[in-house]
Amino acid sequence: GSPGTCCFCCWRCPRFSAQEVAGKKVGDWPRQHRDRVQIKPQRIRLPQHPYHPPEVGRGPEALGTNVSGFLLLSTLWVPFFWIFPRFILSLLPASPFLLTFPTLPLPTAFQGPTSYHAIQISSFINSSWAQTQGSGWLGDVQIHGWDSAANRAVFLKPWSKGNFSDEEVTELEELIQVYLNGFVLEVQDHASEFQMELKPEAWLSAGPSPGPGHLLLVCHVSGFYPKPVWVMWMRGEQEQPGTQRGDVLPHADGTWYLRVTLDVAAWEAAGLSCRVRHSSLGGQDMVLYWGNPISIGLILLAIIVPFLILLIGLLLWFLKRWSYQSIS
Questions:
Q1: At 149, is the pLDDT very low, low, confident or very high (cuts 50, 70, 90)?
Q2: Among 273, 195, 197, CA closest to 231
Q3: Strand order across the 286-289 sheet
Q4: CA-CA distance, 77 to 29, in Å (whole number)?
Q5: What pLDDT score was predicted for residue 165?
Q6: Distance, CA of 287 to CA of 184 (rounded, Å)
Q7: Orientation angle between helical segments 166-189 and 69-82, nearest 10 degrees
Q8: pLDDT by residue (tens digit) across 193-232?
Q9: What's the chain's average pLDDT?
Q10: Are 246 and 252 in contact (CB under 8 A)?
Q11: pTM reported for the whole predicted model
């Protein structure tokens, strides 16, 4: 139910004298030459999918980083949305993309180095419904938007469209729609990864004595995911108001740890328990007893055994009395 957000940013200058692309100089070329500059496949390094092993004989420069399929699609959003501004775009050196586009005349306020951000917010309410919002920002000014209902780009400034023709805008909108459809399907296919649950491990210990005749009972809960968890010291079904909950702390592996304490008199410790409630437990709470819990079987045994002894004694007394009467 939580929206996922992908934000992409690059630093660039609206105009460069030259930019190296595929070993050739481009920049202030005539429009007819600049328009012929294309993104060559060998200039793009796509991340290696984690479920596909690296190809033998290919160096690390051609593989990228192992990421899930939806992140791979996220990187495809970058060239689609960045085609809107008609000015030279240069990505950071660490980026897997190196793209160049013709320039766009910008207002005087934007002359000089600035940044352009493309933001995508996709909300997934359930397995069959998703909605995506998009926006493009030149510095602190939003110049582009995305109408998800009409699948159309929204140009918020008179110059936001640049020198794109209507046909080029339509083609770009179709590309973005193809990406969005693929992104939604990929996320829904991997929904189980976003709903990962790990069961907690719990144990009890005694902390430093808070005073004479008192015990500090400590309930440790570790290794659970996701973060929300409910832990309480109980006596039967009654919550103990003196329960002190610490901070939920992260482990290096992404799971969580929680410490919950209770200060009680030593003679009151018997019968207390720590109850843990977490989504990974399937609605069945984890209960840990302080000391040895008194089982129902022992209680029944303690009642039945004296009763049987009394019954046997009465039977023997009756038989003995009956035998004396027979002799008499």
A1: confident
A2: 273
A3: 238-239, 230-235, 272-277, 286-289
A4: 27
A5: 87
A6: 40
A7: 170
A8: 777 899 999 999 999 988 888 999 999 999 999 999 999 9
A9: 70
A10: no
A11: 0.42
End-to-end alpha carbon distance in the chain: 90
pLDDT tens digits, one per residue of 33-49: 334 333 333 332 333 33
What domains, with CATH codes, occur in the chain?
A: 4-194 (3.30.500), 201-289 (2.60.40.10)
SS3 285: coil
Question: Where does 190-222 have alpha helices with state H?
Answer: 191-194
Residue found under tokens 């796509």: 46
Farthest-apart Cα atoms in the chain, separation: 138
Taken in order 263, 268, 270, 273, the sign of the CA dihedral is: negative
Tokens of 10: 């690059």
CA distance 150 to 153: 9
305 — pLDDT class (breaks 50, 70, 90): confident
Q: H or E stretch including 138?
A: strand 129-138
Both tokens assigned to 129: 């419904």
Dihedral (Cα; 285, 286, 288, 292), 10-degree rounding: 80
Tokens of 231: 């832990």
HSE-up (13 A, CA, CB side) for residue 45: 15
CB 110 within 8 A of CB 138: yes
Closest Cα partner for 225 from 257, 202, 203, 247? Answer: 257
